[in-house]
Fold this protein.
Amino acid sequence: MRAVRSVIVIGGGISGLAAAWQLRGRADVTVLESHTKVGGKLRTGTIAGITVDEGAESLMALRPEAVELAAAVGLGNALCDPAKAPTTVWTRGALRPLPAGHVMGVPTDPAALAGTGLLSPEGVARVAAEETLPAEPLTGDCSVAGYLTARFGREAVDRLVEPLLGGVYAGRADSLSLRAAMPRIAALAEQGGPLLPALRRTRAAGGPRAAAVAVQGVAGGAGRFPQAVAAACGARILTGTAARSLHRLPGDRWRVQAMTDDGPLTMEADAVVLALPAFAAAELLRPHSPLAEAELSGIAHASTAVVTMAFSRSRAHFLPEGNGFLVPPVDGHTLKAASFLSNKWAWLHAAAPDTFVLRASVGRIGEDDVLARPDRHLVRTAIAELHHAVGPMGEPLAARVTRWDRGLPQYGVGHRDRVARIREAASGLPGLALCGASYEGVGVAACVATGRAAARQVLLAP
C-alpha cells in the first residue's frame, strides 16, 4: 500500500470539501479553489439585506451522507424541515398539486389523478392501464421517455415526469438515462412486470421511511454547509487558485501547477483528488489518459439561472401559498420552477417577517437562447410569468440573477457505463481519484458520498 502523507484536492465544492473532511488527521491536505469562496453550487448571498441561497437550498434527507456530515461539523441543530406542502405543477393555466406517493412524477395511484387537471381523462386512463400491460425485464439502458412513455403514455411523461426532471437535472426525458436519473424506477423495471403494483409494494414495504421528509434545509442557508465543512476539516484552503496542469512524478507523486492572483504556484503531493466538473477534469487528464479525457468530455452540461426576488408584504397585491411549483416544458413557459422561500423555510420568515422572498429558475438543456437574455429581461419574464401563475404580486423591492454556466451534468443514456469506463481509465493513474456531481448523482448527498469515497480510494491505493 502506498504511503500517502499529502493530498491536493482540486475543487472546493462540497465534494472536494467532503474529501478533505474524510482525509483529516490522515494526510496533510490542501484544497485548491479557483473562486474567491469555497462551496461551489452551495452558496449564499443577500437580497434586500436578507441572506438567501443562490444555489442548492436543501440537502437530501432520505439518504444520510449530507445530513450526517452537516451534524458532524456542528450544524445538527440548524437542520430544519421545509413546510409541509404538496409538489405543485403549473400547467394548463393553474397550479395543480401532484397526488402524494409519486416517484419522480410517476404516480402510484392513478385514481388520485382524476379531477386534478394534470392529465386529460384519456391520459388518466392510459396511466391506469399500465397495470394490464406485459413488461419484460429491463436490460441495458434507455431514456426515461423511451421506457415510461411505453408504460404510461406520452401525456404522463410530459406533464408529470418532465417537470421533476427539469427541476433536478435541468434535463429532458428523451435524453436522460433511466438507470442514472431514475434508479428506483429502473430497479423495478429490471424485475419485469407492471410498475404500478411494484411501486405500491415498495412504498408499503418502506414503512415510515417512505413517508419521511425528503429534504432538509439549513437555518441561515444551505450555503453554510460547505463553510462549516471547510472550517472543520483542518485542510489548508487556497481560494482564488486555479489548477492549470497535472504532472506525474517519480514514485507516483503528483505536481500541480496553478495560477493565483499573485502569479504561478507549484505544489507536489502523494495523491490528487479531482473534485471538478467533468469538462474541467477532462482538461487536466488529457496528457495522462486520453480515454478518460474523451469520456469526461462526452458528458453534456446544462446552464441555468436563478432569479431571486424580495417583495414587501405590506405592499404586495397578492402573496402565494405553498412552497412553489414546477413547470412542464410542454406548456411553453420560460420558468421551469419557482420556490417560495419565505413559505418554505421558517427560519427565513423569522429573519425577515415583513418581506416575502422567492426565487424562480430558468434554463434546461438546449435553452441557451433563453439564458443569453440580459439579466433585466430574465427578471421581467419571471415577474410576468409569476403573476400569471399565482396572481398579481406587484413589483419586487429587489431582484437579482445568479447564473450557473454549465452547472448541471446530464446523465445521458449509458451514463453508468461511461462512468465505469472513466473510473477504469483513471485507475491506471496511481494516487488519483475523481469525485463530484458528474458521476453517481447531482444532489448534495451524492456529492458528499463521492468525495468521501475518493478520499478512501487514495488512502487505500496499493
About this structure: The longest strand covers residues 301-312. The mean pLDDT is 95. The longest helix spans residues 444-460.
